[in-house]
Amino acid sequence: MTLPKNFFTTGLIVGFAAIGIISLAYLIASQTPPHSSQPPINRPIVLPESKLPKFSSCADLNSTLTAAAAEQRSKSRSSDKFGSFGISAGLGLQATASETSADYSTTNVQVAGVDEADIVKTDGSFIYSLSNNKLSIVKADGNLNLTSSIAFTDGDQPKEMFIAPNRLLVIGNAADWEETLYKTQPSGMPSAPARTILPPRHYYGRLTFVHLYDTSSPSHPRRIRSLEFESQYVTSRLIADHAYLVMNKNADVVSQENIQEETSLPMYKDTGVYGDSAVPMAKCTDISYIPPILESQYLIIASVPLDSPNDEIEKEIVLGAGDNVYASLENLYVAKTTYGDYRILPLLEHSLENSNEKTEINKFVLSEGKISHLATGEVEGRLLNQFSMDEYEGNLRLATTIGHVSQQGALTDNRVYVLDSALKEIGSETGIAPGEQIYSARFMGKRGYLVTFKKVDPFFTLDLADPRQPKVAGKLKIPGFSDYLHPFDENHIIGVGKETVEAEEGNFAWYQGIKMAIFDVSDFANPRELHRVIIGDRGTDSEALRDHKAFLFSKEKNLLVIPVTLAEIDNARKQDINFRSNTYGQYVFQGAFVFDVSLEEGFKERGKITHYDSDDVFRKSGDRFYGGDLNVRRSIYIGDTLYTISNLKIKANSLIDLSSQGDINLQ
Q1: Structure pTM?
Q2: CA distance 524 to 397
Q3: Membrane spanning segments where (predicted)?
Q4: Would you state the pLDDT for residue 648?
Q5: Confidence of residue 344 (pLDDT cuts 50, 70, 90)
């Protein structure tokens, strides 16, 4: 397979897999509010003792880091010499919305009871919106009124948030610390790890900040705790009243003559315990490692209690790193893909059997804020995002792709693995759609769904009833592909992606407009496309293709809403004899597309909502496609009102007829 020519900036059409996974509980209440009147119970369990070895001293830790850093530099030089194939394993995000007892939507999450941070939240009374370095709290009671706002200092960049009863937790990137903060441990703080004076250090990486607010009086939110971690934020989850943060930190390597107690450890500040002083997160002898050690990075898992602002922060620190995270109510899985020497070998001369493209998974047990490392496992191939992993009946299912697609051809294999509770492989299915890459997947109990792409969209059904023998049950080939799969009910799946047209020349296809489809899987061996709708022409895009939190769905309300940047080509141009399918449309609209969705009638457009004063204003907006501040990013509903949110505005419309009910500026 040759690399499609319209994915990169020159128009090449290849993308990485969008792999989604879901549990059966998702169908019932996949978006239960994290703090509803009857929240899911995070059952207390006895945490197992971590079996990972720990370092015997700071000298032991530092010498190990020195060796690991040297090995990584050597591999980096080799990779640079031969060039890379643009491999990427960054975080991608996807999930599902569902009904709750309260009549308002909540964040589209992967697992019921495991909340995910986002830029917009609601508790049914207030809307919390994070944009342009400010958090706005807006009363939504028929009228939109700005109740209060929180401005963040220069250098701090808030990224996302959680809400809970009387609590607001904001997570973001902080400005670098000044080296003058590194002084001796203040007196009167016996719980801080003992250490001597640290040598001066400069920090060029960013920090992760966490601000906890008391919102019992929404008009006067009060910050009650601030934390700063010397690390890079990956993602987080909220279970019951504890937020679990996953972070990475490049390890400091200190020369042997300057080694002192805790000199190579990541630091943090906690106003709830240590005031404004920076202290090590742990002792050298508390740091675990996974032999053989290949990383000169720390993987940091920290839990922040929302109800106890002065409690010590629980932390688990392992020498390693993570780029994809999955969480159930009781376990947290952190995965990291490594490529070995694969990147430096010519693609078509390379064998999948010795590609060294592997993903290591670390499993942590969670219970009431406590964290303990339980197991480490490994599978071949790479994960694209959090939905590449799913826990079901104690087993972990994973979907991976080995190999890559290029202009010279494709050597790929797609696989499904099942690991037991100790992360030992007990089953696998390999050889799925060779020569293609996974674009999306969903797992629902004993069933799974997988989409790969080359020129058409093979939609696979997976039989996972026997975890020791996962297998492909059926498939359907149709034009286009799905970036995101969302359960409508037990026998129907919504797919959102792109329509495609085969290129006039070459073995590839061109992206066209957004495609939404409903797949009927009641005959599991023979899935079929029940309904489809195409939005716009080539160039049409939606944040929902990359971020599940931009996808709003309610089966009960027959409602589906996604933000769309609409590109269109006039019909006369399409009829021109010289018209080619790689032609881009002109941008004519940005806003929310609102659909009625049902199994009987499919997708029926209810209407569109924009935050621009007119289409002409939108067309003249130079940053319209690249995140204009009036671009609709999220949609939520409270009762019979639909709220659309951009960086600068919240707009209210009736769910019945989409008539305007007012708006509010967030400047």
Answers
A1: 0.84
A2: 20
A3: 7-29
A4: 95
A5: very low
Closest CA to 594 of 510, 662, 658, 530: 658
Do the Cβ atoms of 420 and 394 come closer than 8 Å? yes
Residue with tokens 């740091």: 287
Please check whether residue 105 is in contact with residue 551, taking contact to mean a CB–CB distance below 8 angstroms: no
State whether the Cα torsion 177-178-182-185 is positive or negative: negative
Ramachandran class of 616: left when φ > 0, alpha when ψ lies in -120 to 50, beta otherwise: alpha
Q: Which two tokens stand for residue 227?
A: 């934390």
Q: Where are the domains of the chain?
A: 494-667
pLDDT tens sequence across 566-586:
999 998 888 888 888 888 999
Q: How far is CA 61 from the centre of its chain?
A: 32
Q: Checking DSSP bridges between strand 481-489 and strand 649-654, what pairing results, if any?
A: unpaired
Residues in Cβ contact with 319 at an 8 Å cutoff, skipping those fewer than 6 apart: 64, 65, 68, 251, 287, 288, 289, 290, 293, 295, 296, 297, 298, 299
Q: Using one digit for the tens of pLDDT, what is the confidence trace for 128-171?
A: 999 999 999 999 987 899 999 999 987 789 999 999 999 999 99
Q: Does the structure show a pLDDT above 70 at 248?
A: yes
pLDDT tier for residue 123 given thresholds of 50, 70 and 90: very high
Q: What rounded mean pLDDT belongs to the chain?
A: 81
What is the C-alpha to C-alpha distance for residues 458 and 253, in angstroms, rounded to an integer? 48
140-148 contacts: CB < 8 A, separation 24 or more? 140/638, 140/641, 140/643, 140/652, 142/641, 142/661, 143/662, 144/650, 144/652, 144/662, 144/663, 144/664, 145/664, 146/664, 146/666, 147/218, 147/219, 148/218, 148/219, 148/220, 148/221
Instruction: Measure the CA dihedral 375/281/91/416, to 10°.
Output: 0
The two structure tokens encoding residue 576: 């021109």
Strand partners, 474: 461
Cβ-based neighbour number of residue 452 at 10 Å: 25
Between CA 82 and CA 85 the distance in angstroms is: 10
Q: Which residues pair with 223 in a beta bridge?
A: 213
Of 460, 515, 512, 521, nearest to 484 by C-alpha is: 515
- Helix, strand, coil content of the chain in percent (nearest 5): 10, 45, 45
CA distance 526 to 461: 9
Q: Is the confidence at residue 198, as pLDDT, over 80?
A: no
pLDDT of the residue at 31:
41
Cα–Cα distances (Å) from 26 to 113, 263, 415, 520, 618, in that order, read 10, 45, 23, 18, 38
- Phi (first) and psi of residue 57, to 5 degrees: -165, 170
Gap between the Cα atoms of 416 and 265, Å rounded: 37
Query: What pLDDT digit, counting tens, does each position of 310-319 carry?
Result: 888 999 999 8
Query: How far apart are the C-alpha atoms of 490 and 105, rounded to whole Å?
Result: 21
State whether residue 58 is helix, strand or coil. Answer: helix
Residue 491 in tokens: 């026998």
- CA distances from residue 456 to 200, 462, 569 in whole angstroms, order as listed: 58, 19, 23
3-state secondary structure 398-455: EEEEECCEECCEECCEEEEEEECCCCCEEEEEEEECCCCEEEEEEEECCEEEEEEECC
CA 315 to CA 27: how far, in whole Å?
A: 33
- Cα–Cα nearest to 483, from 546, 405, 389: 546
Tokens of residue 234, six digits: 């990956």
Helices (H), 38-171: 58-82
Give the span between the Cα atoms of 163 and 126, in whole angstroms.
Answer: 11
The answer to whether the CB of 454 falls within 8 A of the CB of 435 is yes
